[in-house]
Amino acid sequence: MEFGGITKKGKIGVSQMKKKVKHFLFKRQGFSLIEVMIVLAIMGLLAAVSLTVYQGHINKAHCTEAEVAAHDTMIALMRELADSGTAPAAQGYANSHTLPSGESLNYPTNVQVSFSGSGTQANPFVVNAKRSNPSCNKGDGEYTLTQGQTNGVW
Description:
Blueprint: E1 2-3, E2 6-7, E3 10-11, H1 14-26, H2 33-84, E4 91-94, E5 96-98, E6 104-106, E7 111-116, E8 126-131, E9 142-146
Antiparallel strand pairs: 1-2, 2-3, 4-7, 5-6, 7-8, 8-9
């Protein structure tokens, strides 16, 4: 029986102690195949979930760009109407617009905006925004904001 390097016969030699320590430290050669496979399966599951969540956030950001451009355009149209008393003429889809007052509306890359209407109750402003390359996959890909609304529709 051994206790603390001392046997019933007495002390053990340094070389015997080195052998025991070496055996204790190096007796395990590595991971088994099943352990490695389990770790790889867990990593694969985490990667799949992470990628799905990441793609959802990217798409949401693309849609938000179009929404922000539409809201900014509506604010500029209302400001133009209040300042000058006249509504800007309708303009088709473009990456930027210039209002009669000289204010320039520049939109993010791949976002196009169009607007129409005179700002009256009978003919309210309507702003449409869409994003291309990659497009927003909400609704039909076009965000429509009508004067008086706080939220547009896809």
